[in-house]
Design brief:
The protein is α/β, with parallel strands linked by helices. The protein has one domain: 3-Layer(aba) Sandwich (Rossmann fold), CATH 3.40.50. It contains 11 helices and 8 strands. The protein has an 8-stranded mixed β-sheet with strand order 1-2-4-3-5-6-7-8, with helices on both faces. Helix 1 (43-49) packs across helix 11 and helix 2 crosses helix 3 (102-113). The longest helix is centred in the middle third of the chain and has 18 residues, at 157-174. The radius of gyration is 18 Å and the shape is globular. 43% of the residues are buried.
């Protein structure tokens, strides 16, 4: 398998870092990671697709070796989407965008608000803001599963997560899911990224800047404005790959997704959870390759 090539680039006047695999000139796949990961989280999947694609995985704002401003407002979605729109602009044409976890939120933002940049959208255990806000406000199972968001938004949560050699973050990271893929060698790489000055606070500022409202369990919110479906449409072909054992994002979060994406394909994967890209990279890469091939027919 190919080794990643490390690159640095200025986007909107700020320094960003990304990894790439494959050859320039091949169809571009833009991989967007989530919390608490970084560009290297895509290595298993990207290396399996690099023979036929140019795979690019940036450290998003606040993560890894990319720009990490301290202000909460710097992590509003328009800023995060703007970063990746600028990156796509350097690639010369529409690209296929692949997002996981928080990376899915940015991927959806690109597809909905910068559709001229996105040819196809692939989401892996990530959620569209419409169904997700509905479930966060409902007071039910997803509300209970998402109480960690309220913890992260609290002042000083980064100090609690970094204590005892990131023991708090590791507890949150596992969240009743399979971390057997996180070998000691790989964990060392993750901790190196988390330890960069200001990074953990910046990573958590994504949660603080988000407008999503989270109810208390059993106490539905009644003051959440209805999200306009016509403004949140994904008009390009859309593939959702879903590890069915996810305990952070529950199946209700994808119910009704077809109302926001007319050209939607859903692939359920048994025996995988939120960290499906690490647990089943051959399967994930195969599903992506097969779907892309069919789209090109």
């Amino acid at each position: 398998m190919q080794d990643a090539r490390s690159r640095f680039i200025d986007l909107n006047g700020h320094p960003f870092h990304y990894l790439e695999w494959g050859r320039e000139g091949a169809p571009v796949l833009l991989f967007l990671h989530g919390f608490p990961e970084y560009s290297g989280a895509w290595s298993e999947v990207a290396t399996r697709l690099a023979e036929s694609c140019h795979c690019i995985a940036p450290d998003q704002r606040g993560f890894g070796q990319s720009w990490a401003p301290p202000e909460i407002e710097a992590y509003e979605m328009r800023e995060l989407v703007g970063d990746m729109a600028a990156l796509i602009g350097t690639l010369g044409d529409k690209v296929t965008v692949i997002g996981h976890d928080w990376g899915a939120a940015v991927a959806y933002g690109l597809a909905m608000f910068r559709p001229e940049l996105v040819s196809r959208l692939i989401i892996i255990n990530g959620v569209h803001p419409g169904p997700f806000q509905r479930e966060l406000a409902a007071g039910g199972a997803q509300t209970s599963a998402s109480q960690y968001i309220r913890f992260l938004r609290a002042e000083g949560s980064e100090d609690k997560l970094s204590a005892d050699d990131f023991g708090g973050l590791m507890k949150l990271f596992s969240a009743k899911m399979d971390l057997s893929w996180l070998t000691p060698e790989r964990l060392k790489l993750y901790k190196a990224e988390w330890s960069r000055p200001g990074r953990l606070k910046a990573m958590i500022n994504w949660y603080r800047a988000s407008p999503l409202k989270v109810a208390s369990p059993g106490e539905p919110l009644s003051d959440v404005p209805a999200l306009r479906k016509d403004r949140l449409q994904v008009r390009c072909p859309h593939l959702l790959i879903w590890g069915d054992e996810d305990t952070a994002l529950l199946p209700a979060c994808i119910e009704g997704l077809g109302e926001y994406a007319a050209d939607l394909t859903v692939e359920h994967v048994a025996g995988a959870d939120h960290w499906i890209c690490h647990q089943k990279p051959d399967l994930v890469a195969g599903l992506i390759r097969s779907w892309l091939d069919k789209a090109d027919e």
